Amino acid sequence: MASNCSGCGPGYKSPLDAMNGPREKIVYLPCIYRNTENRKPDYLATVDVDPKSATYCKVIHRLPMPNMNDELHHSGWNACSSCYGDTSKKRNRLILPSLISSRIYIIDVGTDSRAPRLHKTVEPVEMFWKCGLANPHTSHCLGSGQIMISTLGDPLGNGKGGFVLLDGETFEITGNWELPGEAAPFGYDFWYQPRHNVMMSTEWGAPKVLANGFNPADVKAGHYGQRIHVWDWTTHKCVQTLDLGEEGAIPLEIRFLHDPAAAEGYVGCALQGTVFHFSKTLKGDWTAERIIKVPTKKVVGWILPEMPSLITDILISLDDRFLYFSNWLHGDIRQYDITDKRNPHMVGQVFLGGSIQNDGPVKVLEDKELNRQPSPRIVKGKRIPGSPQMLQLSLDGKRLYVTTSLYSAWDKQFYPELIKQGSVMLQIDVDTTKGGLKVNENFLVDFGEEPEGPALAHEVRYPGGDCTSDIWL
């Protein structure tokens, strides 16, 4: 595979080396049927993204899961650049947790990268009995060869931010990463930085309240999180909790800078449309400050009188120069220059659907940023349903891929047309010199045209690794 170097392990020696890696030719996306009209299992789609290929922008393979209503969501690897120096490791298994069913699928992408096959299924009872955890989300490989997966809850649907460990060879669950009694109240994403002996984790909410939709009353009732948890990487203890307050409600994706020596990063907080910068202090503990705030819009014709942006995904370019995030309700993607890490400035913006399009039911009464409501986005004759959500950047930073489904229950609530039409994948051309975003008008993967009916495609993953799955030691 392209991720293997001669005489070394998987991935790349450094983030800057990765930027010179080969251009992506295929990508993997989990496609979801839960909460749609199609009573089919979720599946893993392989999409051709090579402009020179006869099947460019086509789904070239579909691997259905053996069960219904899994809610495939995010994926990770059995080995990445954290195992670069280990010649015995190969990036040949995709780890595919199920957010609702709590199954973990291990996918063989090494035998035939264009036609993945199911290698193993880890049933939820194993996670329940061995770890007391459920609802797995983010998976990262560790330099030790193990795989670690964060969770949202316990088997009863209550919030519980723990971490499941899998053996990197057998894919058996070996137990919890955190010590007994150390699990956080809520869980979601995590990122580790061994040079600073630290791991950070974030909070979404209790699975039993978010499973079927979003109710603002659940936030007031304390069923959603607003904290970053700081863990000692060596002892596995939670050593600090950073409460971000109301402005930091529902902190989702967390990203350290890619430079393994860096002691700082960013987290996107959904509910108030904020981005926090976190960093290590001179005393050795950690602090966080809000450095971006997307203003809410006063509206009529929507469920509330004010519409937040709902930041749902963020990522950082491999050279740590640009930060990107999506506003799933407003409908735009933003690019920020973060050369000055605490003072980012926006250098690119593009609208793709969203809830404030000028021909929709919502009328904006007050907008602190825009002079008029954005027009619908048409690509290759297709009006884009839903709104930009999951992001993935090419290694060289020049192509930003975006899909439009967040999570099936929330899709159904906020963008019911997605359930009927299916989501799409688009490509945004990035100006890496001065900054700037432009829609590639010749790129569209329409998951509304799938053979088994419209599907909800979520996170994009490259076979050779990418800026949201690789961690350097």
TrEMBL record:
Keyword vocabulary terms for this entry: Acetylation, Cytoplasm, Membrane, Nucleus, Oxidoreductase, Protein transport, Selenium, Transport
Presence of keyword Acetylation: yes
EC numbers, comma separated: 1.8.3.4
Reactions catalysed according to its record: methanethiol + O2 + H2O = hydrogen sulfide + formaldehyde + H2O2 + H(+)
One Pfam family it belongs to: SBP56
Assigned GO CC terms: cytosol; membrane; nucleus
GO terms of molecular function: methanethiol oxidase activity; selenium binding
Pathway assignment: Organosulfur degradation
Main localisation: nucleus
Compartment list: Nucleus; Cytoplasm, Cytosol; Membrane
Membrane topology: Peripheral membrane protein
Superkingdom assignment: Eukaryota
GO biological process: protein transport
InterPro entries membership: Se-bd, WD40/YVTN_repeat-like_dom_sf
Biological function: Catalyzes the oxidation of methanethiol, an organosulfur compound known to be produced in substantial amounts by gut bacteria. Selenium-binding protein which may be involved in the sensing of reactive xenobiotics in the cytoplasm. May be involved in intra-Golgi protein transport.
Family statement drawn from the similarity comment of this UniProt entry: Belongs to the selenium-binding protein family.
Protein name per its UniProtKB record: Methanethiol oxidase
